[in-house]
């Protein structure tokens, strides 16, 4: 996608985010915005980590010392001409520097400013500190993951900042839509904790509707069978794990039948399995004992397969299931190669282009910036120093 | 009353479950007119295949996930396999700014509702096609549910304990990643349309959006060959970093120590016990070497205290800490309540339920959640007569022909 065609090409974003908001700026940059990353002299904390590199591509970089009057004045002048400002300092930090929303809004009534924090700008926990682990816990996400006989777990790769950043981009562009129609900017207050709530899927509804508190099931999916049966979703195979399950619904019936037929072809379908009427069987309403018997047979069968064999046959037979991929499996996936997902930027390979606009993928156009790499360039563009 | 941020935006949804329709929910929360199209012969799977149901019995009008996904939308039924149903769908599309669909690739085109068909009548249309693995490529047509796609994109392998099988996340985790990216791409495309008059077709791969949340691990793999493994709750830099049991059944607390000064604060909060005073534990490397022992000691301390006491003491001491909230806790959690993360709405079959509010609060045009999710075909008359201008006679004729089935 050329820059003229990029959806957000006309707009400048001042990106003052820390780790919690890095991805937000990257999302806007991929869509074509000129994202100017503002760092303290020498560069910010966390610079150079895999997450830093992954989530700062596509941005230009300048350094400003916000501890100095000169740096603060310069930021105000930049913000007066910017379309967006995104930041993730603790609540009150920018206000204390004389750079809070009321000041920036007065300088530039069109500005959309987005603040990303663990819990939000105000409220009883606004000033509580939280890293990824605490956010996964406070949002309820950790409660739902892990084996029943051990503590709840987070995902071993930090996720809370990604959710906060993605929702920040959503809120920012909703405010932008309104600004383009009315000329009025606004302040968008993002809570990382609240951003994780959609990832709980239907778990909160069990409490609301039935007074039940759903529990983590490890490899078993709970909450899909009306009698409370657990449906196994992670299965051992010969060289790792695969995921598939017994289902309800029309697509599920096809999948259940296709798996049973495959087992029968290999001589691994016991009599009772061959007698199941797959037109009538639904994992949503089936008897828990029947589910247990079928699952025992499936487990024995899947142990004979490799991840690759399962993946190929699942596609051929239209079974709903995939390998449980490691990053090594992901980078070898032919689908991603065919879609040209891997992009070289600054000598590193990035997953990129998740969306295509009329066939053209939205991609970052530059590697992550060095500290102050574009100081002179941005000065030369006439932004007041 | 201020104008809603997305007032005047017209959206039509063809699709089911979360990945398409939850995009429409973000838009509806902010005032867009969102029409969800389903059929009586095959209602949205969130109505039929997804507990919980109010009172526990499967009932398409009492389904929790449908309620959660469709507040403030208009619900219509059309049988797209009838001529009348298809024609009405075309008329809905012709007046829309945005069409959202999450069928398997090609399904809508076969019905005559693909992007090319729709854009012929409406060149400014922005159409979002969101599906598992994208509209192109060798696996484009592979069916699959979000729960499994979450495993294909690497999250499941990284969840759980190193000595155990991977653990599931609660459900289609990845769907909601794709939802956020879906909203962003639609709004960006609408912005370009304002400037150029041109709409576009967005091909969004849910799998590839998931990889955005996996990007650091992928980068590192390319750089060093490292294949990360699930590691319980441990972290690569912070130590200790874990979830510990408190007094009572299934009460847990998350806590983490990110530098040596924070370790000192934790020691003080624990009452500076003998074991923690060991100078070898004053550095991260020293704590890492004895992480098992530290975790055991911390568990001993937390398990004879209430969760509230542990959280209160550590928070006062300036240590990273949070309760592991369960679903009952979340419903009453004070910070979420302060932000109106749950918004009560009155539903004719379910009764009052708490719709989910946005995690991003807009200062001038806050989201307002006013209406519950629609019953099947609840707004047929309102949409087809009111918005499309069908006469009563035409409506009845179409109804007789089965267009609304």
Global morphology of chain B = elongated
Number of domains of chain A: 2
**Kindly state the mean pLDDT of chain A as a whole number?**
95
Second-tier CATH architecture of the largest domain in chain B: 3-Layer(aba) Sandwich
Helicity range of chain A:
25-40%
The largest sheet of chain B has its strands arranged as: 3-2-1-4-5-6
The fourth-level CATH homologous superfamily of the largest domain in chain B is: Crotonobetainyl-coa:carnitine coa-transferase, domain 1
Number of strands of chain B: 12
Give the structural class of chain A. alpha/beta
Radius of gyration of chain B: 25 Å
Mean of all residue-level pLDDT scores of chain B: 97
Specify the helix fraction band of chain B: 25-40%
CATH superfamily of the largest domain in chain A: Crotonobetainyl-coa:carnitine coa-transferase, domain 1
Going across the major beta sheet of chain A, what is the strand order? 3-2-1-4-5-6
| N-to-C SSE string of chain B, H for helix and E for strand | EHEHHEHEHHEHHEHEEHHHHEHHEEEHH
Q: Report low-confidence residues of chain A grouped into runs of 5 or more.
A: none
The first-level CATH class of the largest domain in chain B is given as: Alpha Beta
Beta-strand residue percentage of chain A: 15-25%
Number of helices of chain B: 17
Shape of chain A: elongated
């Amino acid at each position: 996608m050329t820059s003229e065609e990029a959806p957000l090409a006309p707009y400048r974003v001042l990106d003052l985010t820390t780790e919690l908001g890095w991805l937000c700026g990257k999302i806007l940059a991929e869509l074509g915005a000129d994202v100017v990353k503002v760092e303290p002299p020498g560069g910010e904390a966390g610079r150079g980590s895999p997450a830093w590199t992954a989530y700062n591509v596509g941005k230009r970089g300048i350094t400003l010392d916000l501890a100095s009057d000169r740096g603060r004045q310069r930021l105000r002048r930049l913000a007066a001409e910017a379309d967006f400002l995104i930041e993730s300092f603790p609540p009150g930090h920018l206000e204390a520097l004389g750079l809070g929303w009321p000041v920036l809004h007065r300088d530039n009534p069109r500005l959309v400013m987005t603040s990303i924090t663990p819990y939000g700008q105000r409220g009883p926990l606004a000033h509580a500190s939280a890293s990824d682990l605490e956010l996964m816990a406070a949002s309820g996400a950790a409660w739902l993951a892990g084996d029943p006989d051990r503590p709840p777990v987070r995902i071993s790769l930090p996720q809370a900042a990604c959710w906060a950043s993605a929702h920040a981009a959503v809120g920012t562009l909703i405010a932008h839509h309104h600004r383009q129609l009315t000329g009025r900017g606004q302040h968008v207050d993002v809570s990382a904790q609240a951003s994780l709530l959609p990832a709980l899927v239907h778990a909160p509804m069990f409490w609301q509707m039935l007074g039940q508190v759903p529990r983590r099931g490890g490899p078993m999916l709970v909450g899909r069978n009306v009698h409370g049966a657990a449906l196994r979703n992670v299965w051992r195979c010969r060289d790792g794990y695969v995921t598939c399950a017994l289902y309800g619904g029309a697509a599920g019936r096809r999948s259940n039948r296709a798996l049973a037929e495959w087992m029968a072809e290999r001589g691994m379908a016991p009599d009772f399995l061959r007698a199941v009427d797959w037109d009538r069987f639904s994992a949503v309403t089936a008897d828990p004992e029947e589910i247990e018997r079928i699952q025992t047979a499936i487990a024995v069968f899947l142990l004979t397969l490799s991840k690759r064999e399962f993946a190929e046959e699942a596609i051929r037979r239209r079974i709903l299931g995939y390998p449980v991929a490691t990053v090594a499996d992901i980078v070898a996936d032919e689908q991603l190669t065919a879609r040209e997902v891997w992009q070289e930027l600054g000598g590193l390979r990035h997953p990129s282009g998740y969306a295509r606009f009329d066939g053209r993928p939205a991609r970052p156009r530059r590697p992550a910036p060095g500290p102050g790499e574009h100081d002179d360039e941005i000065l030369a563009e006439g932004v007041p120093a | 009353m201020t104008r809603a941020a997305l007032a005047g935006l017209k959206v039509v949804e063809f699709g089911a479950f979360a990945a398409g329709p939850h995009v429409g929910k973000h838009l509806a929360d902010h005032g867009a007119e969102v029409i969800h199209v389903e059929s009586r012969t095959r209602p949205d799977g969130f109505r039929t295949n997804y507990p919980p149901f109010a009172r526990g019995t499967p009932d398409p009008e009492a389904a929790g996930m449908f309620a959660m996904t469709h507040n403030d939308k208009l619900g219509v039924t059309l049988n797209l396999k009838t001529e009348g149903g298809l024609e009405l769908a075309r008329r809905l599309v012709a007046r829309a700014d945005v069409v959202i669909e999450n069928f398997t690739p090609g399904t809508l085109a076969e019905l005559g509702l693909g992007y090319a068909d729709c854009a012929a009548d409406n060149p400014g249309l922005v159409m979002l096609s969101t599906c598992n693995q994208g509209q192109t490529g060798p696996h484009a047509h592979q069916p699959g549910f979000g729960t499994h796609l979450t495993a294909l994109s690497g999250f499941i392998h990284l969840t759980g304990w190193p000595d155990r099988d991977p653990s599931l996340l609660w459900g289609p985790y990845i769907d909601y990643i794709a939802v956020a990216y879906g909203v962003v791409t639609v709004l960006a495309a609408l912005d370009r349309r304002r400037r150029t008059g041109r709409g576009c077709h967005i091909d969004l791969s849910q799998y590839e959006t998931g990889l955005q949340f996996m990007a650091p691990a992928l980068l590192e793999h390319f750089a060093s060959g490292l294949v990360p493994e699930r590691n319980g709750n441990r972290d690569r830099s912070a130590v200790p970093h874990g979830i510990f049991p408190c007094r009572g059944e299934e009460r847990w607390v998350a806590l983490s120590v990110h530098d040596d000064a924070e370790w000192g604060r934790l020691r003080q909060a624990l009452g500076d016990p003998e074991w923690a005073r060991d100078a070898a534990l004053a550095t991260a490397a020293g704590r890492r070497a004895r992480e098992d022992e530290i975790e055991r000691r911390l568990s001993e301390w937390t398990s004879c205290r209430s969760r509230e006491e542990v959280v209160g003491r550590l928070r006062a001491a300036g240590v990273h800490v949070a309760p592991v909230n369960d679903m009952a806790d979340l419903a009453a959690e004070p910070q979420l309540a302060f932000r109106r993360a749950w918004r009560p709405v009155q539903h004719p079959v379910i009764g009052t339920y708490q719709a989910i509010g946005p995690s991003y609060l807009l200062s001038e045009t806050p989201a307002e959640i006013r209406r519950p999710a629609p019953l099947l075909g609840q707004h047929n008359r309102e949409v087809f007569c009111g918005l499309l201008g069908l006469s009563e006679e035409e409506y009845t004729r179409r109804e007789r022909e089965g267009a609304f089935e």
